[in-house]
Each structure stands twice: as C-alpha cells, then as structure tokens.
Amino acid sequence: MKKNIIYIGNFSFPKENSSGIRVLNNGYLFRALGYEVTFIGLSKSIEKSTKLNLTLSNYDGFSYYSFPYPKKITDWIFFKEQLQQTIEIIKQNQPSIVVAYGSISNSFFTLYLNNWCKKNKIKIIHDCVDWLPSASGGLAFKIGKHIDTEIHKRYINASGDGVITVSNYLSNYYIKKGCKTLTIPPLSKESHLKTTPTEEKPITIIYAGFPFPTTRKIKDKSFFKDRLDIAIEILSKVNNHNFVFNIFGISKEDYLKVIPEHFNLINTMNSKVFFHGIVNNDDVIKNLLESDYFILIRDKNKMTQAGFPSKITEAISHGIPVIVTDTSDLKEYIFNRENGYIISDNDKKENQIKEIEEIINNGKDHADALSKNCVEKNPFLIDKFRSNAKSFIESI
C-alpha cells in the first residue's frame, strides 16, 4: 500500500462549500504528515448525462474527482455506478487509508464502501461533523432522512477503524462505543490581518451563513441552526449606540417570511441592520475584513453541541474577533477580551444586552487589539493539530 489517502464524501472540493474547505485543510494536515491525498466529492457545476460523469482535476497539488451533485430523490437513493467508479479509483491509487466524509449518496453507500475496505484490508476512517435533525420537507422525506442519519451516525461511523470528529461531543459519543477518535475543528492554513479603514466608522458587526430554512414560517425555532433572530433582538435594545450590522446569506424578504413578527423591529433599525442576501464567498470575505466583530448566537442543543461553526474559524483566521454563545467546543478556542467574547446563554437576555452594549462601547481600538490577537494566536492553524493527528493515524 502507498502512503496515501482517498478522501470521499458529501463535499464540494476545493472551496465550493464549508465541507470542501474542511476536507481541504484536513488534506493539508495529512500532507504535512507525509501523505498524498486524493479527493472524491460532488459538484453542482457538473451536468449529469445519461452516463455518469466523473471528472479529474487538480488544486494546489491535490488530485480530485467530482461526481455531479444529486438533484432528484432517485439520484440520492441509487448509487451502484458511483460505488463502482469509486472502487476503481481506490484500486488504481492503492491507498493505505480511506476517509469517508458522510456519503455522496446515502448511508448504505458508505456501508458498502466500509465493508469493501475491510474485506480488502484498507483502513477506513469516518469523518463526522454534525448530527442534524430532519426539520424540513414532507413527512415521508423527514422520516427517511431521520432513519438514514441515525443509521449513519450510530452504526456505520462506529464500524470503521477510527472516527475523526469536529467536536468533543461527538468524540465522547464514539469513545463510549469503543472507537478510536481524533477531534479536529475546522482548520485554517494561515492567518490574515484585517483591513484597517482610514476613516472613522461605527463598530461593524457581521453575520454570514444560512440560519434557517426560508421557504415558510417555522413555528419551532429550536430547529434553527443559528439564532439570527435573537442577535437582531439584542441589537435592537442597543439601537441608540454607534454600530451597523451586516447580514449575508439571507435577504430581508426571506427573513421576514420566516419571522414576520420582526417586521416593525427591522423597520425601526433600517439605519443599522442591512441584509445583503446570498453573495459569493469572496464578497463575504471582503466585508468580513472590513468588520470589527463576527456574531453567532446559537441555542444549546444536540445539533449545536455536535457540530462546530466553520465561520468562527474563518473569522478568527482573518483577524476578526467573534461574539458567540457557549456551544460546541468554543470555550476551548475563544477567550473573553483576547480573541472575542462568549456571551450569556439565550435564556439570559438582559445579560446578553449588557454584554453587547459593553462590547460596542469598548470601541475600535479594543476591537483592533483583539484582531491582532486573533492573527498572532490563531488556535485553528493546522500545525497545532499535527501531533494528535500523527498519534491517531499510528494507532489505527
């Protein structure tokens, strides 16, 4: 077997989505350990013909293949051809390790891949980054999605030779099942110092992401990934202070479609809150670099404890201190008055308001000092995880 790794799963390589960015940086980590890494993912830019396409490309020395992104239910259910082509690539590359990031189809694709690797004496590691509820779609879809998720998370991930997880919550779950684990949050290859504006501006706070489905009003907000609504409510209570809040990833119209009760609140803040809708990631980064803080408010539940917000890594690595609630492993990486703030939980609104007010009143110089700390002491740099990764791979 060669000293190389095949990384396959539900990601768009190299940087088409947050999953693609995660596995790319994990690829840099494995490369630093002496492994050659090849990726097999999904791409929405590839059209599916009568015969399944599988294109080979190269990015920064990484070879990668992309299947067309599934568009119909049948594309997700039937995976025989994808599995055959994947096995052919594995045979050609003769890897020592296969890493499965979710599935390019459904959980049974990964199950078949897992069993094939074991039969052929190839180590297989599962990369687990979330445990999401089935909150959207019709009843049949939600039931099917729930069953697929539970099979994958509870049984298939635990049946390999080890599990890479994104949080201690997930690692502790798999350790109890007797698995060897490695916890890796979203990583960054390097740090970037933020842009310092020449003219005086208000404290600029930014949010970027997809906080919740936007097709309809959702009564149960516990399914919201990000509580953008709470962030807006908190900022509405300090509306007399000098700040602006830029929101990327959702339009004002879509936001109010889900949370119509905020119609008047948003209108009273029209000089402070700006919805920019969905834009490309380069535009998000440009605006991120011109901001003072990135804000992310989340409820504490299984979904938010199991995952880890990749935007926090991105913000810190671009020199932007963060304002977050205590979820996942954030307390291991975010420290008050050093690289950001962990504010009170969502059941303590009055405390949150006072904390945000203090952060805004601390001014630009304070935010700039935190920004330098983010860059100089970036906790997400790849080199900080080399030793643990080396020990994990050697253990399997």
From TrEMBL:
Domain Glycosyl transferase family: residue ranges: 227-373
UniProt superkingdom: Bacteria
GO molecular function terms noted in the UniProt entry: glycosyltransferase activity
Top enzyme class: transferase
Keywords (A to Z) from UniProt: Glycosyltransferase, Transferase
Spans traversing the lipid bilayer: none
The protein's Enzyme Commission number: 2.4.-.-
Signal peptide start-end: none
Protein name as annotated: Glycosyltransferase
Organism: Thiothrix winogradskyi
Lineage summary: Bacteria, Pseudomonadati, Pseudomonadota, Gammaproteobacteria, Thiotrichales
